[in-house]
Amino acid sequence: MTSELPDASAPAPAPDDAPSELAEPQAGAERAGPAEAVLARRGFFRAFSREAILAIGGVAATAAELQRDSAAVATRLLGLGETEAESARGAGDGGPPAG
Questions:
Q1: What is the biggest distance separating any 2 CA atoms in the chain, rounded to whole angstroms?
Q2: How many domains does the chain have?
Q3: φ and ψ at 16, to 5 degrees?
Q4: Is 60 exceeded by the pLDDT of residue 4?
Q5: In the predicted model, what is the mean pLDDT of residues 80-93?
Q6: In the chain, which ranges are continuous DSSP H helix?
Q7: Is residue 27 part of a domain?
Q8: Domain carrying residue 69
Q9: Quick check: is 94 in a domain?
Q10: Is residue 73 a contact partner of residue 67, using CB atoms and an 8 Å limit?
């Protein structure tokens, strides 16, 4: 069985052995490449930050709603926030207060 993997003891090719099209960048590509990469990166981070802010806003809104709902349920269950007169009226015959 022969191995097709390169021999680990063989010397690595020198960087000068690279093909000429890879070794020498083209003049037009050098200027356009980094600018396009910068614009693409900026676009990505703008979109990412927009999505993150929207997600954080959604989480904050959900937390605030849960807090309000749980406070309202606790108030109703424990009878907090009612005055003695409101409690007495509610414990009466269940009808509207006479007046």
A1: 104
A2: 1
A3: -70, -15
A4: yes
A5: 63
A6: 20-23, 27-78, 84-91
A7: no
A8: 34-78
A9: no
A10: no
Q: Which residues of 44-60 are buried (b: 16+ CB within 10 A; e: fewer)?
A: eeeeeeeeeeeeeeeee
Which long-range contacts (C-beta less than 8 Å, at least 24 apart) are formed by 8-12?
A: none
- Give residue 54's pLDDT: 97
For the segment 19-62, what is each residue's pLDDT rounded down to a tens digit? 665 556 555 555 556 889 999 999 999 999 999 999 999 999 99
Q: What are phi and psi of 91, to 5 degrees?
A: -85, -5
pLDDT at res. 41: 94
Question: In this structure, is residue 22 part of a structural domain?
Answer: no
Q: Would the pTM of this model clear 0.70, i.e. be above it?
A: no
Is residue 66 one of the residues assigned to a domain?
yes
CA angle 23, 37, 32 (to 5 degrees): 60
Q: Percentage of the chain with pLDDT > 90?
A: 41
Helix, strand or coil, per DSSP, at residue 39: helix
Q: Letter for the amino acid at 49? A: S
Return d(Cα 78, Cα 40) in angstroms, integer.
57
